[in-house]
Batch of 2 targets.
Target 1
Amino acid sequence: MSMAGNLRKVTGLGRVGGLRKVARLARRRPRVDLSHPARSPLGSSVVNCVTYRDGVRVPEAGDLVDVVQRVRKRGGGFVWLGLHEPTDQEFAGIAELFALHPLAVEDAVEAHQRPKLERYDETLFAVFKTVCYVEHEELTATSEVVNTGEIMVFVGQDFVITVRHGRHGSLGPLREELESSPEQLSKGPAAVLHAIADHVVDDYLNVIDSVQEDIDEVETEVFAENGARADPGRIYQLKRELLELKRAVVPLSRPLEELASLPIRVVEQEIQAYFRDVSDHLLRAKEQISAFDELLNSILQAHLAQVTVSQNEDMRKITAWAAIIAVPTMVCGVYGMNFEHMPELRWTFGYPLVLGVISVACVVLYRGFRRNGWL
């Protein structure tokens, strides 16, 4: 019996009583592609549902209610249920079965939450912001650099429920990695929570490394020979995307500190040491983001200074040429007046002399401006 196959019906029921109406026998389905970026091939919001005992995947027959009851009766195991963007109706029966708090359920369904950690009786509710780097051939003022999503995690003594929002951040590879380490997985639902937190923070560091390459590219262009002509929109775009990354990383500090230090019933002290390691990695990510923010501010200020200097140079050139042109303009203006009695008006060498004076004056001014760097 495929428990994941039953869940396709479970998520469509609103009450636990109706869960028992799910057929107890069903054709075994092919293995789900856990790395699928969007909805599960099962045809609903359910990505996978697996039972673990002593760190090993255990095949279970029957519907979700029977499986949960057997796990709770035997003890020592837990159920990991993975969902992708469930609706209210799909999540209602699951929420009632596991006695999830209505506020946490609302947050999990609606999404768009800040990273946080909340405790509701015997259940721990954690929200993580996932990020991914959007590949682009050339950074422009409208390029999307960072794409965000969310992972909500419900952790109890005998269950883990993950709710994922967004088309990235699949937990399939993480599940397979955990299953290859039964010793770590045998530590219970808290080990899954740690693995998710560690996976999310590692993604932060990977995205930060990619963003650094974009920043280096912009920095090189700004400080190039024609840096004043660089597009400032690219710098603003990077700052905007960096702000999106900052919103995902910075608020996660406090939840990880609580998981690493405060006594929490579903998180054993042995697991808290692992959360301290994740917290250290997050601190590194925060420091890099702060450094990037300051660096982008410096790059932007340097670019604006370059633009100002370039404009000053242009104004000096314009002023120098205007001064040179002013000499013949003034002389021609004087001799262009129609007075009858003007000096050298009837002199044979008057015209060549005026041209010579104009030429000499213009050459002297030109050489003076060139010597002072104005031309």
Target 2
Amino acid sequence: MTAPTARKVLLAAPRGYCAGVDRAVIAVEKALEQYGAPVYVRHEIVHNKYVVKTLEKKGAIFVDETAEVPEGNIVIFSAHGVAPVVHEEAERGKLATIDATCPLVTKVHKEAVRFAKEDYDILLIGHEGHEEVIGTSGEAPEHITLVDGPGDVAGVEVRDPDKVVWLSQTTLSVDETMETVGALQQKFPNLISPPSDDICYATQNRQTAVKQMGADADLVIVVGSKNSSNSVRLVEVALGAGAKDAHLVDYAEEIDEAWLEGVSTVGVTSGASVPEILVEGVLEWLAQRGYGDVETITSAQESITFSLPKELRRDLRAEAAAKAAGDDQA
């Protein structure tokens, strides 16, 4: 193999943790510090293998359903949000809850509730089975129809074409979402858009950064887990922007050296649920193979932060125990 003349890395910025993920992960850590293990978490707090394993080592227990949490315990709801029925399940199970739903997801939930009250048909653009979509749909199931990409548009039916609004999952590809919106607008000319963009700022910023470096990269490595929607979208965006090749990896060890064949420029980025230590591992792996020259490609500056869930300010252990004791005495 002929070695490339100049090897370098284009490092996307911003990348990695968004404000919603940071808030959710800290919420679990603070709950463990404040109340001690175990603290139960319904579904993965964020979609990242490393984060989940790290929190498990600290005493978090991840469950698929609320019913798996023993009575009188604390359960944390993940950043992706849950339907109202899940809150009801927790109440019936005598559980104290910490809601770590990303505030930007909560915004979409509130939009769904408002438009449902006004008797709109709501077309939710998103991926079937994704936790965020399940949570949003649960706010107004009788009003919401899922639209999973432009290919679904032909089959969409509504009660009144003059009373239709679209909302979207927050972690989608911006371009694909707008393609779906365009197709919906052709079918429903009076389609209303949400009052503000549903796709989150972090998703958009990470996609913009990848677009800027994609055309100049022979290979783009996206650090993220396969069940992370925004990470998977970054691979698609990289290829769409002109990258010759792009792959998703959880850890540096998953990189195949064959991907480097004939590659002079490697783009590196990470999904919104990925801690920076994993990116550092990839950069170190590449440096050991001659890609030590790193240039940062910055598309935006991020300064958004979210306050921790309000429930962390109360003594939830006492609250959960009181619930259980009160019901026992009843």
